[in-house]
Amino acid sequence: MNPVSLPQYECxxxxxxxxxxxxxxxxGDPLRVRMPKADWGDGxxxGDPLRVRMPKADWSGVPSVRLxxxxxxxxxxxxxxxxxxxxxxxxxxxxxxxxSYILSDFTRRDEPLYExxxxxLFIDEEGDxxxxxxxxxxPRGIVFDARISNDGSGKPQGIQADTGWDADGLAxxxxxPAAGNRAYxxxxxxxxxxSPLRKGLKWRVNAYRIDHAPGRDPELQAWSPTGKPWFHxxxxxxxxxxxx
Length: 244
Description:
Radius of gyration: 17 Å
Number of strands: 16
Shape: globular
Helix content: under 10%
Structural class: mainly beta
Number of helices: 1
């Protein structure tokens, strides 16, 4: 596919407010109530700081895009929309998902969340498809974060994931705004990017979702369909542009 036909998203500038969402996220959400403390393996389990300093943005007026079938580009069973905004503090991304069934058993950071329900964000700052960030959030608010090395072979053995990297200051929030719906927010601080965030900065990006349903194969969704049941296809990543 010609790169000019790949999708582009202009990410608007927004002011953030910092909130403590430790009580808010539990209300009306049985996954949160039942969720044991996650063992992050680095001494951070007490208080779960990934969810302590979650910025808040006004999402009204922020453009949204819908995910499609990763292989065919067709309509998906359960809709997913994605919004993003930025300022000098970092990047804030929101996934809004129709979700009638949840498969989410993992409780530890960097477990293979991609084997169950999850939303994912890949960010390639250089745009060459060789090195990029992979960020995942499960319905339970568990995180997988890794820096990916991709040799371009298109084969699973050509992907190396450095899960020893933890995005410093990463914050996530998962809510159930209505029955059959789930909303995810992910904040990545500016310090985790190689260049200062500024208007006009461009990255190659893709957003994904894996959605399970009883008696069916998992549905793979993508903002920019890859043409295959595989997410690590950086030549099909779309483009994020930091706007006004």
